[in-house]
């Protein structure tokens, strides 16, 4: 469903990605592993149309999406949860989720709030709390939940386990398993190998803007 082929990206004169290729199939969970500064976030931002200078092919359901504006890419069915959490601290949990509906894919039924709260029971308990009253991990969950309100078929999660308490990381693993059970695909960037192995079907390793390895965790 997502095919990235010979992707190059640069910020000004700094060449960051040097021919990155990867693909994510229907109903697959794929990990993008790599050290700090390897190019994981730049790869995801390029897919989302957030890097101006790119080259190569990015196809989603067979359509070239490289060069399209980011809001249009969201509407094709790709949800993106960036590394930096974006919550509206002065809105309640429910109101934060409603914001996510705005970017929804038009041709598909929406996630109901009830369905979403089944998936995120800790958010359900706090639906009338303000965003800023949640812990960092809960805010991360809320960001993911809000992205699901846009009804994506593929979700890009940029380091979802980063800086999060182990108990929330466990919940995060359950959420990803549930997304797969619902038929979604997930591409996640991770430095936490244990977590990536727990949730993913296979992995890529990126190093200094180039793909170094891909395979299953059994081969790693
Ligand atoms: P991390 O695990 O730390 O999030 P990453 O694999 O996501 O790392 P990227 O954020 O993609 O790495 O960064 C890749 C390289 O691009 C780094 O050397 C970084 O300094 C550089 N870089 C990232 N964003 C910019 C920017 N806006 N302008 C210039 N250089 C950037
Ligand atoms: Mg990153």
From TrEMBL:
Signal peptide: none annotated. Keywords: Amino-acid transport, ATP-binding, Nucleotide-binding, Transport. Residues 2-220 form the ABC transporter domain. InterPro entries: AAA+_ATPase, ABC_transporter-like_ATP-bd, ABC_transporter-like_CS, BCAA_Transport_ATP-bd_LivF, P-loop_NTPase. SMART domains: AAA (SM00382). Pfam families: ABC_tran. One of its GO terms (molecular function) is ATP binding. PANTHER family: ABC TRANSPORTER ATP-BINDING PROTEIN (PTHR43820:SF2), HIGH-AFFINITY BRANCHED-CHAIN AMINO ACID TRANSPORT ATP-BINDING PROTEIN LIVF (PTHR43820). Belongs to the ABC transporter superfamily. This is ABC transporter ATP-binding protein. It comes from Lutimaribacter marinistellae.
